[in-house]
Design a protein that fits this description.
about 40% helix, 7-stranded parallel β-sheet, alpha/beta, Rossmann fold, binds adenosine monophosphate
Length: about 375
């Protein structure tokens, strides 16, 4: 089924043709017509499935013709759990929005940076992409009104309902008009998501995409059994031996992320850490450098394992395992996207061995484990 049969305008079709978007992804085939018809949608779809364009394209269409005449009343609200995802989603709105004859203004607002520029920028905004806390601050200062929302999108809803956002979310829901379109996207169908689906959605189109398992087959996974204190030397050895040029390393804590990045730098490997304790500017700059290929190693906590799309990322290394098997799948899902196969390596200490078994069982795949004992890590 081509994009041209989904009801999109010729301007958007032209923009799509200029990209490598030759065919709509399965989720797009289903959700684009439904969103254009103002239906509610429940999409169980992980990052990488193409869900963002799936809602961005039809929402741009639906917003045309009602451009912000109503002062500080936005018509589309997209709620996301992290600042990085807010920026990423806004960029997709900007990218495709720029192809339209009419100007549609999309803005991202999030905490951790000064609120004033966001207040000013809200004037004339049609589509607002927001993290919940900052959105409420802006509402309280009368910088934005939510009573005219036509469509609410919850992206990565499972994460949002998990992260202690619930109270903020309830306050936001209370500010929205009763009659509106709701689009809910979540990587997994947890109890929280089922619950919110029941209160929020009206006769939704339900679509479930499971590329994670397909995706996992695209990823070659390998593990090294290594004592905790040898993880640093092994990491450096692997990066040097295999001449890895773009590596995302995951750690389980902020402290560890900083520490690993420091050690890499001391050993002549260009690395920066990214986590919740870093200033927003530093996070954005690190991610941009990494995405553009000018930074060799990004050391991250699970802050960025979800939602962030990095094209053609060939290598992910779990320096430490995440607590949940789901997070493991999200982490390694940063590689092996679309048609580019990737490699995921996990460094497993004796303490993590049992947990790694649990993860493999959950994933339904067994990973080859190499004992690093006889490896000469100085070599
Ligand atoms: P998402 O799941 O929204 O994070 O999208 C994953 C990636 O797929 C992004 O890099 C998109 O640019 C890309 N993408 C989305 N839809 C298509 C499509 N129909 N054809 C090719 N690439 C796509």
């Amino acid at each position: 089924m081509p994009f041209s049969s989904l009801g999109l305008s010729s301007a958007l079709l032209k923009a799509l043709a200029g990209e490598d978007y030759t065919q709509p992804y399965p989720i797009q085939q289903e959700v684009i017509p439904a969103i254009l018809n103002k239906k509610d949608v429940l999409g169980i779809a992980p990052t990488g499935s193409g869900k963002t364009a799936g809602y961005v394209l039809p929402l741009l269409m639906n917003t045309q013709g009602k451009a912000a005449s109503r002062n500080r009343h936005v018509s589309v609200l997209v709620l996301v759990p992290t600042r990085e995802l807010a920026v990423q989603v806004r960029d997709v709105f900007h990218h495709f929005g720029s192809a339209l004859p009419e100007r549609i203004k999309a803005l991202a607002v999030f905490g951790g940076v000064s609120i004033n520029p966001q207040m000013m920028a809200l004037q004339g905004t049609d589509i607002l992409v927001a993290t919940p806390g900052r959105l409420l601050e802006l509402v309280e200062s009368n910088a934005v009104h939510l009573s005219g929302i036509d469509t609410l999108v919850l992206d990565e809803a499972d994460k949002m309902l998990n992260l202690g956002f619930r109270e903020e979310m309830n306050r936001i829901f209370a500010l929205l008009p009763q009659k509106r379109q709701n689009l809910l996207f979540s990587a997994t169908l947890s109890d929280d998501v089922t619950h919110i689906n029941q209160i929020l959605l009206h006769d939704p189109l339900v679509i479930k995409i499971e590329p994670e398992s397909e995706n996992i087959d695209l990823i070659s996974q390998l593990a090294y059994f290594v004592p905790e204190e040898k993880k640093g030397p092994l990491l450096r050895y692997l990066i040097k031996r295999d001449d890895l040029q773009q590596v995302l390393v995951f750690t389980s804590s902020v402290y560890s992320a900083d520490n690993v990045a420091d050690k890499l730098r001391k050993n002549g490997i260009d690395a920066i850490s990214i986590h919740s304790k870093k200033r927003q500017e530093a996070r954005t700059s690190a991610l941009n450098k990494f995405k553009s290929g000018s930074l060799r190693v990004l050391v991250a906590t699970d802050l960025i394992s979800r939602g962030i799309d990095i094209k053609f990322l060939p290598h992910v290394i779990n320096y430490e395992l995440p607590r949940s098997p789901k997070d493991y799948i999200h982490r390694i899902g940063r590689t092996g996207r679309a048609d580019s196969p990737g490699e995921a390596i996990s460094l497993i200490s004796p303490d993590e061995q049992h947990h790694f078994k649990v993860i493999q069982k959950k994933m339904g795949k067994w990973v080859t484990m190499i004992d690093s004992e006889n490896m000469d890590l100085r070599g």
